[in-house]
Batch of 2 targets.
Target 1
Amino acid sequence: MKKRQPPVFFLAVVAFIVSLLIFRFGIRPPIPSSLFYTYVAATLGAILLWATSSEEALAEFVRPIKATIVKDDLRWLRLLFILLLPIVMGYVAYSQASVEIQPPAELRVIHPAPPASITVHGKQLAIEGLRNPLRAAKDFQAKKAEYLAEGRRIYFQNCFFCHGDKFAGEGHFAQGFNPSPANLADPGTIAQLQESYVFWRISKGGPGLPDQSTPWNSAMPAWENMLSTDEIWKVVLYIYEATDQQPRTWEAGHGQEASK
Ligand code: HEC
């Protein structure tokens, strides 16, 4: 009597499914899909090679396939394939062609109008017309170096992680945020703004932004919770000085730089 062949077709299918599961879930971190398909193709090749390695194995491998196609008592299975195949293909085609539902694009106002006045550390400040009190004081020139040294310390202890050592918004954490931290060295940010506007943005941060700037999107902290009023004005001084920019002044109105 002939030795009975193992169920080659069944084993081939099981081996293929197991290898799919291993490539998909067994490799950490997950591999890119191009590599995944390369592995799958190589495995499929190896399985087919094994299944067709001898006359007997080949005969055993194609037996269930042939039986399904020609045998009368497997008619139900044949019918199942005939029904399932177009359904599966239809689903694949549909899922590739269908458009995914996307959230609407948000239009974010980067420099929204500030509130008329804000309350920081119990003191109410009107934004419009307000100058940096340190800069406005008579002893400013005498104290400037001291303020800037303080501002520098404050910046590198608090802001640099996001806004970066070059003020370009490329700090260590910057990659993690959307919108990304403002590039303070760019002519489009603080160079366009009055110091009181910048004071508002630093003290109230992302949570203090009005709705059109989608406050929940900004990682900018509200620094009034960590810094004193004086410290905020000092860091304002420092970021202008360090980026070699002039704040916009109120006297000249919007859009103009006043002569000093
Ligand atoms: C956790 C990260 C993070 C830290 C730390 C941080 N910021 Fe920001 N900052 C942001 C992000 C993000 C934005 C942009 C979104 C926005 O305008 O709120 C921003 C915006 C700003 C703006 C507004 C610029 C503009 O053009 O409107 C200023 C000014 C600013 N930051 C200054 C500071 C200062 C000063 C400090 C330190 C006291 C600081 N930031 C610390 C993340 C940070």
Note: The CA atoms of residues 72 and 236 lie 86 Å apart.
Target 2
Amino acid sequence: MPPQLKTLLPLLAVFICIFLVARHFLIPESFGKYGHYRADSMDETAAIPINYVGKEACAECHDTETAKLASDLHSVLSCEICHGPGALHVADAEKGILLKPGTREFCGTCHSINPARRTEVINQIDTKEHHPEKDNCIDCHNPHAVWELKE
Ligand code: HEC
Ligand code: HEC
Ligand code: HEC
Ligand code: HEC
């Protein structure tokens, strides 16, 4: 064995010891219980409160808006994708603050031109060029009124 290696060996042994001790303290207790992950993370995830309730829950009280949303174009969307999570509001209608999302910026999250999106799936406009004379998109396209306009 070359002499350089001989001097390095103790150093290597020290590193391995440090690694093993550190590993012992750093790996969470429940790691490996079921597999190569921390078992406690499942309970922690399950304990996160659910904030979304789904479309049917909204329809119970807002049948008018639900019917109007059937503009057949936005009808595929959930209410909460635009209005935000609704659990608080469903529990207490006065309390839950829901978004009223009609701004150029908000609608642009789905409709502003983006080469990664297919126009066949979703129509896109340049939010800076498309009718900039109005501040808000809903001045012309109200998701709850398109249906009426069509008739
Ligand atoms: C138990 C009945 C009930 C359910 C269920 C319900 N709402 Fe409401 N919602 C109300 C009432 C009542 C108001 C009016 C409250 C007010 O004006 O203070 C309201 C107001 C609103 C408003 C207008 C808020 C504003 O500032 O003018 C929006 C938007 C809304 N609801 C969306 C939803 C959505 C989305 C859902 C489903 C996640 C939903 N609601 C479920 C009863 C309900
Ligand atoms: C594409 C986005 C979008 C979706 C999806 C959507 N909304 Fe709305 N909603 C809006 C906008 C924008 C307004 C504000 C209209 C306004 O200010 O005139 C609004 C207003 C409302 C209001 C308040 C009406 C008022 O007179 O103040 C209610 C209630 C509401 N929506 C319920 C719903 C329900 C229930 C659903 C699902 C069935 C839904 N919305 C889905 C965008 C949406
Ligand atoms: C979560 C994504 C999403 C959001 C947010 C959204 N839309 Fe849409 N929108 C769609 C989809 C999907 C369609 C149906 C496919 C299509 O025609 O582009 C659609 C269709 C439309 C159309 C009809 C386009 C056509 O083909 O003639 C208009 C106009 C429109 N949206 C305006 C709005 C406005 C205004 C807002 C903001 C209040 C908004 N959208 C918010 C997804 C969205
Ligand atoms: C002054 C009224 C007006 C405003 C404000 C407006 N639009 Fe439009 N939009 C129209 C008209 C009219 C059309 C029909 C096609 C055209 O003339 O450009 C249209 C078409 C569309 C289309 C379909 C495009 C296509 O290729 O068929 C989408 C998507 C759309 N608008 C989204 C929006 C969004 C998002 C906003 C807000 C950033 C907005 N619009 C603001 C009047 C308006």
Note: The pocket of heme C (ligand 1) is lined by residues 53, 57-58, 60-62, 79-80, 83, 86, 89-90, 93-94, 98 (CB under 6 Å).
